[in-house]
Each structure stands twice: as structure tokens, then as C-alpha cells.
């Protein structure tokens, strides 16, 4: 188990770097998790992270790649809801990395 230190508070992570408690998530935590992945969060990243959090609220699960692409396309249109765009934003592993940064559990059908 590891942790990140945010504003003097220790936040526990699981062995894969996902938050152990969903309630620990905040934009500051997302920035710290992104920094661990050597990723700077831009507005286009935040747009996907917010959608993912909405998806989780609605369905109580983190989507794998195909459902993620479909959901993004439905909400933001085909220019953003495609594998190429999401892979570019999230280093070739959009469902896993975006879920991690959004403070959600690892998608169950992702390796």
C-alpha cells in the first residue's frame, strides 16, 4: 500500500495507485495522482474526468474502454468520443488511467 500527501493529509492508495476511499477525491488529489503519472491535467482531461465521475454516479462502476468511448461520444460527440482522442489524453490506457485520476475504482475488466 502506498499513499499521497495532500495539504498535510495522508491519503491511502491501493497497490495499483487507486484511491482506497472514493470520498478522498478532490481536484487537488486528481492533480497529485496525475503528477505521479507524469501527466499535466488540461481542460480536455478535466472534461473526461467529470464525465467519468458522472458515469460512476449513474451506474456505480468504472467503465472499460469501449463503454467509456461510447459514453464520451454520446455526451461530447464523436470528435472526443473516440479511442484515438482518449488514448492521446490518457497515454494509451484511457479507462484505467482516467478512472484512477477521477478517484474511481479500477475498471473490473481491465488488466
TrEMBL record:
Known EC number: 2.8.1.-
InterPro entries noted in UniProt: DsrC-like_C, DsrC-like_dom_sf, DsrC-like_N, DsrC/TusE
Major place of residence: cytoplasm
Annotated catalytic residues: 110 (cysteine persulfide intermediate)
Molecular function as annotated in GO: sulfur carrier activity; transferase activity
Subcellular location: Cytoplasm
Alphabetic keyword roster: Cytoplasm, Transferase
GO (cellular component) term, any one: cytoplasm
BP GO terms, sorted: tRNA wobble position uridine thiolation
Family: Belongs to the dsrC/tusE family.
Functional note: Part of a sulfur-relay system.
Protein name: Sulfurtransferase
Organismal lineage: Bacteria, Pseudomonadati, Pseudomonadota, Gammaproteobacteria, Pseudomonadales
Amino acid at each position: 500500500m502506498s499513499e499521497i500527501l495532500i495539504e498535510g493529509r495522508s491519503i491511502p492508495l491501493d497497490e495499483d495507485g487507486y484511491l482506497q476511499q472514493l470520498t478522498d477525491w478532490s481536484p487537488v488529489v486528481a492533480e497529485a495522482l496525475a503528477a505521479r503519472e507524469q501527466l499535466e491535467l488540461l481542460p480536455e482531461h478535466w472534461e473526461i474526468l467529470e464525465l467519468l465521475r458522472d458515469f460512476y454516479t449513474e451506474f456505480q462502476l468504472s467503465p472499460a474502454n469501449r463503454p467509456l468511448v461510447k459514453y464520451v461520444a454520446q455526451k461530447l460527440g464523436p470528435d472526443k468520443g473516440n479511442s484515438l482522442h482518449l488514448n492521446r489524453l490518457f497515454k494509451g490506457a484511457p479507462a484505467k488511467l482516467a478512472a484512477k485520476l477521477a478517484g474511481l475504482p479500477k475498471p473490473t475488466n481491465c488488466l
